[in-house]
Each structure stands twice: as structure tokens, then as C-alpha cells.
Amino acid sequence: MRTMFALIALCLVVAVAPREGQAATDFAGKTITIVVGYKAGGGYDKTARLLARYLPNYIPGKPTVIVQNMPGANSIIAANNVYSVAKPDGLTMGTFNRNLPIAQLLKVDGVKYDMTKFAWIGSAASESTILAIRDDLPYKTLDDFKKSNQTLVIGATGPGANTYDFPLLLKDLLGLKLKIVSGYSSSADIMLAIERKEVDGRAGSFSSIEPFIDRKLVHPIIRARATEPGIENLPVDEDLAPNPRSKTMMALRSAPEVVGRPYVLPPGTPEEIVKIMRDAFAKAINDPALKAEAKKGKMELNFVSGEEALKVMREVLNQPKDIVDEFGKYVKFGE
Amino acid sequence: MHNRASLFLGLGIMALSAWAAISAWAWPKKAAMFPLVIAIPLFCLAAAEVLWVLIGAARAKGEVMDFQLSKDVPQRTARLRTLLAVGWTLGFFAMIVLLGFPIAVPLFVLLYLKIQGREGWVLSAVVTLAMWGFFYGLFDQLLHVPFPNGWIQDWLGLR
Amino acid sequence: MIDALLQGLFLILQWKALAFMLLGIGLGFWVGLLPGLGGVTALALMLPFIYTMQPHEAFAFLLGMHAVVATTGDLTSVLFGVPGEATTAAVILDGHPMAKKGEAGRALGAALSSSLVGAIVGAFALALAIPVVRPLVLSFGSPELFMLAIVGLAFIASLSGQGARGMLRGFLVGGLGLLLSTVGQDPQAGVARFTLDTLYLWQGLDLVAVLVGLFAIPEIIDLVVRGTSIAGNTPSDHLRKGAFEGIRDTFRNFWLTIRCSLIGTFIGITPGLGGAVAQWMAYGHATQSARNAEERLGFGKGDVRGVIGPCAASNSKEGGALIPTIAFGVPGSTAMAVLLGGFFLLGLVPGPDMLTTHLPVTFSMVWTIVLANIITVAACLLFLNHLAALTNVRGHVLVPIILVMVFIGAYTANNDYGDLLVMLIFGAFGYFTVVAGWPRAPFVLGLVLGKIAENYLYISVARYEMAWLSRPIVLALLAVAIVVILYPLVQARRAQSRKQANA
Of A50, A249, C49, C305, whose CB has the highest number of CB atoms within 10 Å? Predict the structure, then answer.
């Protein structure tokens, strides 16, 4: 009789006890989907596909990782999807436009996500924005240019892209003499316009301008907060701000760049799954084979932790109303 | 037929360009210029076309450099079949929304072949299977195109 | 330079490179043929596989695949009236009516042979342009590009129907296209224009969804109405002889083919115009080759020149698009943007180096385009009869298959149901324009060129104020635009006076 009770008790205990180290954290046989907010072929997509090939080695159970493209509204659609439609079971993660916190900040119509509520894995890279001007111009540094009192024509794609926003803030807040000509269909077209001497320079991510710097077509003269090897010694826009308000504006614009390639899980994903993904990402990005491939593909990957990314999101989104309003006058959400 | 369709299109374009011009008026100059420069003349052109249809003689419908619907089928049959074609197309769309692509595709092919095409079971089955296999194999398995669940699956709480 | 030319040839004649090229061709064949499988997406998906290849092998693979897509996309357009790719929609206007008349074989033969000629011309242009490429591309600034867009828009006049009424309708749909091209976020003030408060329309109307709806839906409706196979009731042996007739057509209109190839190459060279334009301008030019107004009316009903023009242009464009990609690192088309990624992966830096130290690699690309197209056309000719026989299949079996392809084609553009709605809406629009007797080609021109015209106008004015109007190339292009607009009017006037003289 007592043995029977003991057995039943044992069964009950086993049945009710939490399942540690069991199927919940093992992804064997499963497929993980990375939802990319852009079409195939773009920077976010390439990074995602590269990671998709190496992540399985670092996730328990070696699941298959695939990439799905959900372009539209500069990846707001993808973010909305990962936020409310995807299940928080670790089988779906999203990567999208680094400027989405700005869209949320400016209360853009259609935003249905909250960047601070995503379960953050981290960022696979940080983007540093620079302003580069044609090599054959007589100004080698920012000071040369300021002293000359000439106006430079800067080509841009449109509001919301860093090609446009970065020089706009430089012009309006730092008083640099820049004339912004907007409407080019892509940043590559702007490079051609530079060659034609139609415009004198462009702003953009360091990684995309680097090949042209190497070719001695342009050289950078000023950068934003985030830095990469090769441009550390450039003057930083925030450092030159004439007053704290301007400094905040510029910081706000460049804050998301630290989280250059954001990767998130849906809100409510269990802690242990988030931890697994964070570890997997950190290890995958340090994988030597991945690093070699990334270098060949001109992708500069470095892991920024989820905690750090969340901190940045909160920094951006916890701004007082008057700052947000003034920021909204300069910067719109776009690319 | 020609005239009624022309009238319909003309009025439609008038309405559209008027709405466009009115919406654009409120925008900043740079964003509004192009749409206004186009919408206002467009409105006038559309109005001209509408007037021409209403007033002008119903002469030879201007020959056009585009394909024209076949004329060798009697009017009534043509009209009926047109409605059927539209019905099937919209029906397919409804199937996709309600059931999701993966189910809608083979279901539609099968239904069309059997009901509209009145083809035999063997042919219908073969073509349906081929289409489903091709669709599933290529777009789902190989390309991982995301196909959202149909509404019915969501209501039933499946997958 | 000659030895670089030969070196390039030998590079791809090695068996490994050839094997990769054949693999690429095999893949590209299906990518082009199937709506729903875009050439650009396919290229992007293939990039990770080329890491371990040598540069000339990788390009044999990528370019082999890419060079073929435009050719086989034309086949779907001709056979089913469904654009296999966004860049092959113009062929539908005359290619599919030919298929409906039972001349599928002829249409395919013409499409294939003119595609081949176009590809070769494009490849040659790439080879020959190498010394002059830099000054050529650099002389086309934003003002010139704006004028080029105006020239493109001028073709609306040629693509409109007869007389004043025709012109009115042509400009009406053209204007509608222009208006609709402004949907989306504008690049001057960031305003979301005409987006109806949806996220979907932020980036404008997707061209693929519009084209698929505009052209394929009316054809499907027509197919159901006729109740027959695509070819109607023509006897089947009629189809077989057609292919050679089609090939002869290309050579009978040799200068037209060459001119359209040059148009395509030229548009490919000027980055910023977008790939969809070339075929439509070529089509417009082809219609101008009609000797009188009655002949011009034959377009849209199965004039083989309406097949030759766009096919030649859409193929030559890719050779042209390689030029700015290689010489400047600026992609001449979206596919080239992906290819550029391939360049970097292989450690090549596009720029002056490609025209000097790496010249053999550049030439190997030229040869790849030529060879890939020759092989594809040869293979297609072999299967031509089977392809043409599809037009004899019962309509009822084809309709569901085509409809599925149409829906998938529209959906996979952005993986968004919104594209399906757009497709249906423009399908309705296409149907009504056909019933009303209005032309559709000007609409596409307006839609494709509107944004380009607007942006480059703004850039030109912002940069040069009014001085750009006096630049030589701008004035030359303006003259061309005026000629293009007046041409049909002059032709009509001359025909009138001839009729009166003979009366």
C-alpha cells in the first residue's frame, strides 16, 4: 500500500515538475525563420543569409535556419509582423531597418510595434555614417572646408535616409555651408554624380563608401558617433555642437546606428530561448569562417549585445516631447 | 460597349485626378508640384474625352494599337463567359485569403478543371498534383516564400 | 586589347567555367520563364554559392543565368500573355496576338532571334565601349537623364491610336500613369503621397503586380470567352513552319533590330533610368517603322516588328548595364546591383582596373553573354515546337495554370497580399481599357518614367537652376523628343495629302 502511494506520488511529482533541459530548449528538427524587412540582395538580407548559414552550428539541436523577405514600408510591415503575428517560441526572429525606433518616436502612421518590448538578441553590426567629398576638391579636412566659406553640393536620396538626414543636421545645426540636392534613385547613383562633378559629395555608411575611398574618388571629412577602424580620427558631429540641444538632436539621429543590424525575437519569448539566441549570435559572429566570408562580402560584423541594444532603444524613445517635436522638424522616417 | 466603357473610364479618371489635385493642395510645395502639374491637365483631358463621348457622333470607334477582344463569339455567350472568368478569378482570390496559398492553389485548379473545364478525373488529378508539387516544391520548400495562414485556419486556431 | 579579347574567350572555354555557365543557363531558363521567380531575386540567392569559384567561373555562372532570363521571359509573354519578368511585358502586345492567330512558332522564332541579335549587340557595345566608356557615361548628368525621360514619354504619341481622338486617349492614359507613379514617399519633402493611409503603398505601386494585372487578366478573360485553345482553330502543322519565318523576319527587319538593340544598350548604359523602360521605347520605335497609318494600326494585333523591337532591347540592355557596373562600380540595373556584390565577393574592384589590369575578366563577361545567349536560343529552337504546341492545349486546362502563375507572380514581388489587390484592380482597368479601345502602352510608359522625370527635374533645377536647359545634349534630346511626337502627325498629314492627290 505504501509503495503504491509512493509510486503515485512519484508519478505526480514527475508529471508536475518543470521540464528542465528538455524539448523547450532543443531545436532539433525545427526550422527557424529570419524575417527580413527588405528584398533579397540588400545589405540586411545579405547579413541575414550569411548568419543563417552559420547559426545552426551554435544553436542546440542544429536546426535549419532560413530567410524570408517581407519588404514594404521600409520594413515597418516586417516589424509589425514579428511583433504581433509571430509566435514567441524562438522559431521566428526579425531583422529590419535600424531607424525603426525613430519611426516609433515620430509616431509614424502604421507603426504597431514597440522597440523596447521586443526580446532583443542584439545587433550584428554597427553602421557608422560619414560625409565624404570628392578627392580633387581643395579641402582635405573639415576645417579647410569651413575656412574656405564655399558651399558644397551634397547629393541625397531622400528624407529619412542617412544620405539626407546627416548633412541636413550638419547644415542646420552646425551651420556648414551645404546645399542638399535630393532625389537620386540610389546611393550608387550619387557616386556617379560625384564622378560627373554634378555634386561634390555624399553622406552614407562607411562600409558602402569605403570602396570609393579606396579608389581615391572621395575622402571622409566628418563622422557620426559610431566608429570603425579607419575613421576613428575624424571629427565627430556631436563634438562640434554649439549647444546641448543640437548635441541631443545629432545624438538622437545617430543613436540607432550602434544597433546597425538589429535582430529581435517576438515580445514574450522565454528568457532561456533569448539567451540561447544571444549566445549563438555572439559565437557565430566570431566564427573565423564567417568572418572571412563577411570580409570578402565587404560586411563588417561585430556583435552588440541585446542589453546594449535595448539601452539604446530606451535612450531614443524616452525623450521629452519638445525634443521630439524639434527632431521631427529635421528628420523624417524614410529609408 | 466601347462608348460605355470609355465613359466609365473617363469619368473615373476625372474623379481620380480631382481627388489627387485636392489631396496634393495641402502638401508642401515641392511634394505637391508634380502631382498637381499632372492632375489638373489630366482632369481637363478626361473631361474632354467624356464630352466627346456624350456629344460626339457614335462613329467608328477609334481604331487602337492594342489587342481587341475576340469578336467571333456571340454577345450573350461572351458576356456570360466574361462573368464566369471574373467570378473564377475573384473566387481564387477569396480562396487564397480564406485558406492560404498552399491549399488554395490545388483546390482552385481541381475545381476549375472539374467544374468549368469539365475535364475527366484523371487529367484533373494529374494537373492538380503537378501544379501543387511545382508550387510547393519551388516556392515553399526551395524559396521559403512566406505564405500567411488563411482566415479560416486562424479561426480554427490551426498551425 | 585583341589579346585580352582572346584571353577572355579562352578563360570561359575551360570546361569548369563552361559547366558553370550551362548550370547558370539551366537555372536562368526557368527563372525567366516562370512568373513569380524574379531574375534579381534569383541572382541574390545564388551569390552565397560563388565564394569558392574563380572570378571567371563565377561570372560564367551568374551572367549565364542572368543573360538568359530576358530571353525566356519573352517566351512566356508570347505564349501566355503573362509577363515572365517585368522587363518582358512589352512583347505581349504583339507577341501574344500572334500566338492567338496560330503564329506562335513565328513569334517565338522572331523573339529568339532578335533576342540573340540584341544580346550580341549589347555584348559588342560593352567590348567596344571600353575605351570611351568613362567620358560617355560621365557626360550624361541629371539634366540629360531628365530629357531622356521626356523622350521616353514622347513615345506616348506614337503609341496612341489614330487621329486626335487617339492622341487624346493616349495622353490620357499616359497622364494617368504619370500620376500613379507619384504614389509613395516623395524624395523632396518625405510626404507620403496618395498612400491611402496604408503602409503597403509607401513605396509606390509595384510594377510587377501592375503589369501582370494589366496584361494578363484581360488575356485570361479573353481566353475563357473564346473557349478554345490559345491558338484558336489553326491547324497544328502551321505552327511548326513558323519558327524559320520568324527568324527570317528578324533579318528582314535587320536595321530595326539593330536600332532597337542600340536603344536597349543605350538605356542600359545610362544608370538611373531603370530596366523596364528599354522595351517600351523600343516598342514605340518599332511602331514608327510602320510606313503609313494603317500599318501602324496593325500593331497590337500581331505585327512581328512589335516582337522584334522589345526582345532585342531587353536583351541588349543587360550588356549595356554591365558597362557602368564594371567601369564605375555603379550598377546599371537592379540585377547589376546584385552582381556588384558578386564582384566584391571575388575580390574584384569595379573601376578603371577592370578596364586595364583585369581586362581579360571583363572580356570573359562579354563572351559569356554572347555564348550563353547562343546556347539558350539554340536550345529553345530545338524545343520550339513543343513550346508552340502549348498554344494548342485546351484553354480550359491552361486557364487555371496561368491564373495560378499570375497570382504567384504578383504575390512574390513583395510577399504581400496588397500586390494581389493591385493586380486585380489593374486587371479590371486593363479589361476596361481594352473594351473601350484605349491603348495601354502609354500608361506603362507614364508609370515607369514618372518618378524618374520628377526626380531628375528637381535635381537639375536644384543644382543648375535654369542653366541646364542650354546644355548641348539636353537640347539635342529635346529635339529628338519633338521629332518623336511630331512623327505620327507628319505621317498622317502626308497620307492625307497623298489621298487627296490621288482622289
Answer: C305
| C197 touches A: beta carbon within 8 Å | yes
| Count of CB pairs separated by less than 8 Å, A with B | 11
Query: Scanning every residue of chain B, which has its alpha carbon at the shortest distance from the alpha carbon of A36?
Result: B146
Chains contacting chain A through 3 or more C-beta pairs under 8 A? B, C
**DSSP-based three-state secondary structure for B32:** helix
Contacts of C101 (CB under 8 A, 6+ apart): C231, C232, C234, C302
* 3 state SS for A95-110: ECCCCHHHHHHCCCCC
Within C130-190, where are the H helices?
Answer: 133-138, 142-159, 163-181
B88 vs C: CB within 8 A: yes
Which pLDDT tens digit goes with each residue over B49-94?
898 888 875 554 555 666 666 666 778 888 888 898 999 999 999 9
Residue (of C391, C339, C386) closest to C365 by Cα position: C339
pLDDT in tens, A19-31: 444 445 778 888 8
Segment C148-189, tens digit of pLDDT? 889 888 888 878 776 778 888 889 999 999 999 999 888 888
Distance between CA atoms of residues C65 and C37, nearest Å: 13
Domains along the sequence of chain A with CATH = 30-126+259-330 (3.40.190.150), 129-254 (3.40.190.10)
Distance from CA of B107 to the nearest CA of A (A): 25
What residue in C sits closest to A151 (Cα-Cα)?
C463
Provide the 3-class DSSP secondary structure of residue C130.
Answer: coil
Copy the grid coordinates of residue C319. 550588356
A186 vs B: CB within 8 A: no
Q: Contact, C122 vs C369, CB < 8 A?
A: yes
SS3 string, chain A, reads CHHHHHHHHHHHHHHHCCCCCCHHHCCCCCEEEEEECCCCCCHHHHHHHHHHHHHHHHCCCCCEEEEEECCCHHHHHHHHHHHHHCCCCCCEEEECCCCHHHHHHCCCCCCCCCCCCCEEEEECCCCCEEEEEECCCCCCCHHHHHHHCCCEEEEECCCCCHHHHHHHHHHHHHCCCEEEEECCCCHHHHHHHHHCCCCCEEEEEHHHHHHHHHCCCEEEEEECCCCCCCCCCCCECHHHCCCHHHHHHHHHHHHHHHCCCEEEECCCCCHHHHHHHHHHHHHHHCCHHHHHHHHHCCCCCCCEEHHHHHHHHHHHHCCCHHHHHHHHHHCCCCC
Residue B18 has pLDDT above 90, yes or no: yes
Please name the residue of chain A whose CA is at the shortest distance from the CA of residue B143.
A68
Which of C:317-336 have CB within 8 Å of A?
324, 328-331, 334
Report the interhelical angle of C55-80 vs C39-46 (nearest 10°): 160
Question: Is C300's CB within 8 Å of B62's CB?
Answer: no
Q: Give C163's contacts (C-beta < 8 A, 6+ positions apart).
A: B62, C492
Range of the domain at C394: 2-502
Give me the residues of B, 28-47, that contact C with CB < 8 A: 28, 30-31, 34-35, 38-39, 41-42, 45-46
| Element housing C315 (H / E) | helix C305-328
Does the distance separating the beta carbons of C163 and B62 come in below 8 Å? yes
Q: What pLDDT is recorded for position A5?
A: 61
Q: Is C378 on the interface with B (CB under 8 A)?
A: no
A-chain residues within 8 Å CB-CB of B146?
33, 35, 68-70
For residues C312 and C305, give the distance between their C-alpha atoms in angstroms, rounded to a whole number: 11
Candidate from C47, C415, C418 with C-beta closest to A69: C415
C199 to chain A, any CB pair closer than 8 A? The answer is: yes
What pTM value is reported for the model? 0.86
* Nearest chain B Cα distance for residue C488, angstroms: 13
